[in-house]
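Before the break, one more example. Copy the sequence into your notebook; we will annotate it together after we see the structure.
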Amino acid sequence: MKKLDLVAAVLLVVGGLNWGLVAIAKFDLVAALFGLEFGETNALTRIVYGLVGLSAVYVAAQLRAIPRRWSTTTSHPRAHSTAA
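Here is what the structure looks like once it is written out:
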């Protein structure tokens, strides 16, 4: 599940950056990466946009569970060592 959490987080960052660029600079990064103009789509860009949307749904649904999955309940052996 941690890998899925990471993939979802990366896709949300990509989506957030893309929307920020659209708002600030009228630049669609996803379209540009696939050689398209602002506002144009093809199958690949729609897949990326769809994955970003699915990531948002996943993270929203898992909002309470993700911190529990990522918290460490056992102490790591090196966590309490001091530098000599």
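The helical segments are 2-25, 29-33, 43-61, 65-70. The chain has a mean pLDDT of 86. Try to locate both features in your own notes.
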